[in-house]
Known about the structure:
The protein is mainly β. Helices cover 0% and strands 59% of the residues. A hairpin with a 5-residue loop joins strand 5 and strand 6.
Amino acid sequence: QVQVVESGGGLVQAGGSLRLSCVASGSIFSINAMGWYRQAPGKQRELVATITNIGTTNYANSVKGRFTISRDNAKNTVYLQMNSLKPEDTALYYCNAKVQRSIMSQLYDYWGQGTQVTVSS
């Protein structure tokens, strides 16, 4: 089994910063991409940022220049530094890990339970 656990959410005023962390643990041979997604009430889950195991990043247009994704491969951990937060960034933020459980296995998607980010105006 693989567990994915997020932390670091909270309540912040507009213009403030938060740093989210996510660690994957369990039966892991390797992790390909890791990423952050978010879902606001009444909306679909959307991509925020992803990072591959060699550091290639991808960001949603809405967060470019404000959010930075990074990764510690040795710790199976991904971070999301969020600066200049806006009320529209309010959402439940989910971590995703694409995990290979053995040398012969395919990649599987694992999700955390989410961490709430609330930005007040």
